[in-house]
Amino acid sequence: MSKKSVFVIAAVAGAAVAGTVAARRLRQGGSEDSAGPDDQVEGSTDRWRVVTIAADPEQIAPEGRLPTPLADLDELIEVRFEPAPGDRGTELAARPRAGASHPDDQNDLARMIRRALRESKQLIEAGELATNEPQPEGHRPATPAGLVVDALSRRSPEEGVL
Amino acid sequence: MKALCWTGINKLQVEDVDEPTILEPRDAIVKVTLSTSCGSDLHLLGGYVPGMRAGDVLGHEFMGEIVAVGSGVEKRKVGDRVVVCSFMSCGQCFYCVNGLTSLCDNTNPHPGLGEGLFGASTGGCFGYSQITGGFAGSHAEYVRVPHIDTGAFPIPDGVTDEQAVFASDAVPTGWMGADLGGVKPGDVVAVWGAGGVGQMAARASMLLGAEKVIVIDRLPERLEQARSIIGAETLDYSDTEVMAELRERTGGRGPDVSIEAVGMEAHSERPDYLYDRVKTALKLETDRPTAVREAIMATRKGGSVFVLGVFGGLVDKFPLGAVMNKGLTLRSAQQHGHRYIPMLLERIAAGEIPTGHLATHVMPLADAPKGYEMFKTKDDGCVRAVFRP
Ligand SMILES: NC(=O)c1ccc[n+]([C@@H]2O[C@H](COP(=O)([O-])OP(=O)(O)OC[C@H]3O[C@@H](n4cnc5c(N)ncnc54)[C@H](O)[C@@H]3O)[C@@H](O)[C@H]2O)c1
Ligand SMILES: [Zn+2]
Ligand SMILES: [Zn+2]
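^ inputs. structure came back:
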């Protein structure tokens, strides 16, 4: 790969991360230069993360049983259901249980919650998970830019603004 | 199997890759009969769209035959001859139910990337960078199609492969521009770009009742197609001042609806082109919005502008003042093909939408790198290079 292409990909991949990181900085709040209403709204790694699912609470959690991806985190999280406005189904929210911390760190738990919420929504609405591995691919040289794209792609179900 | 892979900026190669397999119950495997290049691929090829990885299989506009289905497939079956929408739709989420299928919540395995760049993620798309999910594309002998029941449409008898393949992307994209741009009987419509997408937007505008449709480009073969096959008026921007010419042809008003089908690599002879070239080269701007700017300035007061051309990031010198003060409606989208494709296939079968002429260069997949070179430079009158794996 040419130097130019490495630069472009790295720059843009950087932009994608920057967006995510900036969003997370807002969520974590407290940074001096960004203190403002956003911080209070976004809160910290403890805040509620929410997806809207086109289904009733009983379909999402029959007899109170959470969908598997969330049930796997049962000990660590608390979960809230609210009807979504305009017949859009249910707002399903999750956040770390007070005092509960994931063995590694609090960011890891936030990542697991993001993934679990997304996967729960996919399973209930679409009936399956969005996936594409393994699939056909050509030779993937281990260039620095390529490795950045790979790492970002791999982490992306756990990242983003959710 | 053989597949066309992106291997770096402006580099393509046909490689031997593994065949796809069924991964989820609603999947199918389609044996590709025809797969066409699209203007969007040029943005990927040139490195304008972020998130490409060397080894990615290109291609998102295709048709073929279903050769295997997963256990959860209900409507489609092995042997069906189908055209597949470039974007994937789960059919169940809020966006899919409301016809905004390219915004599907559940088909993109990499939602964090789009959220980082745009604040939210699109649905999955074949062969279109990691941002739309990193799915292997259709310039290959076989392709895995998730959600085949919602994403694949049987091709009516009498519609040829060369006609049908464009119902995957160019035709629904053009139709969406006219439909969601609000074209109605009596309108005057201007379309920037006489590629496959622009021509289809022009034809859709006519079918929705526009009284006058003006297609703008500078490539003579394309303008000729727009006149003789689509039935539109044309305007060569290398030959005249676009804004003045449009005013003259629209009674001094400007078009009611402007459809931009050029995208982020627009070319121009205006001074702002040089400005954008420099800014994009220095990475101070990612996209060149020349045609969008022109469309906004040209559109009549209270009119609407639909941006079909693909943009990936940030643009500069955006005439927001014109949008605001002229009371314009500005809309855009990746194509929501699922809501249109069955109707469009019927119209193609009825001879209302000519498409086959776009396939100016049909060739074996092995020649795809050459085909893209031709398509990129628009050499030999190439409108679309189409591959037969
Ligand atoms: N929204 C969607 O879902 C969707 C789907 C398909 C394609 N697209 C986009 O639509 C655009 C067109 O696709 P295509 O396949 O027709 O591409 P294409 O490259 O074949 O055609 C683009 C045309 O625009 C012309 N052009 C360049 N600068 C111009 C200007 N300033 N004024 C007028 N014309 C100009 C070129 O000469 C060319 O004929 C691309 O940006 C593509 O990415 C969007
Ligand atoms: Zn396309
Ligand atoms: Zn959906």
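The first strand of chain B starts at residue 2 and ends at 8. The pocket of nicotinamide-adenine-dinucleotide (ligand 1) is lined by residues B 38-40, 42-43, 169, 173, 192-198, 216-219, 222, 237, 261-263, 266-268, 290-291, 308-310, 334-335 (CB under 6 Å).
thumbs up if we can close this ticket
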